[in-house]
Each structure stands twice: as structure tokens, then as C-alpha cells.
């Protein structure tokens, strides 16, 4: 008689997991989707129009005023620890 409630609780646990999984699948189904061709063309367009300062061989030399990675010459260069 002791094993009967345990089996019932195991089946309830399995049922709860299935319900949660079903809910996640429904949420997944509700997400907006775009075609792969649209996503790839959008990515290509972004890469062609967005200047990457870490690739000067492609975009040419970067002005020091435009380069966010250039060391600043303003103010103190001290580091406090």
C-alpha cells in the first residue's frame, strides 16, 4: 500500500512536466518569425553599412576622434587600485 501513493505522485510529476513542456512549445510557436533569406540579407546589409573599427584592413584607417578603442590623451592616465 505504501508504493501506491508514490506511483501516483510520479505520474503527477510526469504530467506536470508534460504540461510545462507543452506551455513552452506554445510560447515558442507564438514568437514572430522571418524567412532565412530576409534574415541573411538584413545581416549582410548591416555588415556592409556598419563600420567596424577593429577591421581597418576593410574600412581603412580610423580617425582618432571616431575610434572608441583609441587611448584618450585627455586628463590623467593614472589607474587607482
From TrEMBL:
Keywords: Lipoprotein, Membrane, Methylation, Palmitate, Prenylation, Transducer
Transit peptide listed as a keyword: no
PROSITE patterns: G_PROTEIN_GAMMA (PS50058)
UniProt GO molecular function: G-protein beta-subunit binding
Location of this chain's protein in the cell: Membrane
Top-level lineage group: Eukaryota
Binding partners and assembly: G proteins are composed of 3 units, alpha, beta and gamma.
Protein name: Guanine nucleotide-binding protein subunit gamma
Organism in which the protein naturally occurs: Cristinia sonorae
Amino acid at each position: 500500500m505504501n508504493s501506491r501513493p508514490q506511483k501516483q505522485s510520479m505520474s503527477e510529476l510526469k504530467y506536470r512536466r508534460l504540461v510545462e513542456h507543452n506551455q513552452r512549445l506554445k510560447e515558442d510557436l507564438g514568437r514572430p518569425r522571418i524567412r532565412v533569406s530576409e534574415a541573411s540579407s538584413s545581416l549582410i546589409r548591416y555588415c556592409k553599412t556598419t563600420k567596424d573599427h577593429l577591421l581597418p584592413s576593410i574600412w581603412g584607417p580610423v580617425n582618432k576622434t571616431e575610434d572608441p578603442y583609441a587611448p584618450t590623451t585627455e586628463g590623467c592616465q593614472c589607474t587607482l587600485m
